[in-house]
Amino acid sequence: MLNRRVFCGVALTALAGAGAGAATVRPAQAAFRVTRSDAEWRKMLTPAQYKVLRQEGTERPHSSPLDKEKRAGTFHCAGCDNALFRSKTKFDSGTGWPSFYAPIPGAVGTKADWSILGRRTEVHCADCGGHLGHVFNDGPAPTGKRYCMNGVAMTFKPA
User: What is the pTM assigned to this prediction?
Assistant: First the structure.
């Protein structure tokens, strides 16, 4: 079924490669609790994790097993293990990416992202600055938010 979210998700994924040269400005590394050199990030992350977390890439929709994860537990940053989202806030947005209606308080930061298709709100890990995804104002109650995250940027720890 092709709805607005699926269409936009596919379009954004297709354009992500085209917009790769127009990266947004990252907050200074010193602004985060966890800092590493580029070489250290490359050594500890998989190529896919590095592309998303450190270069603001986007994984293909429906490619992450975390999109279908339904167990009780917590989703953590793959770069620094910061606890980001509780499973009770996860919902199926139909986009092909893990989606949540609220992060753990203080776990994420946001900034304006003008890289493609106008202004979006980028979500990053509050501890290491790793790019996680974007937040939109079309989610369910109680927040009305949809934190659309890249599964490769996270790990899951069952309760």
Answer: 0.81
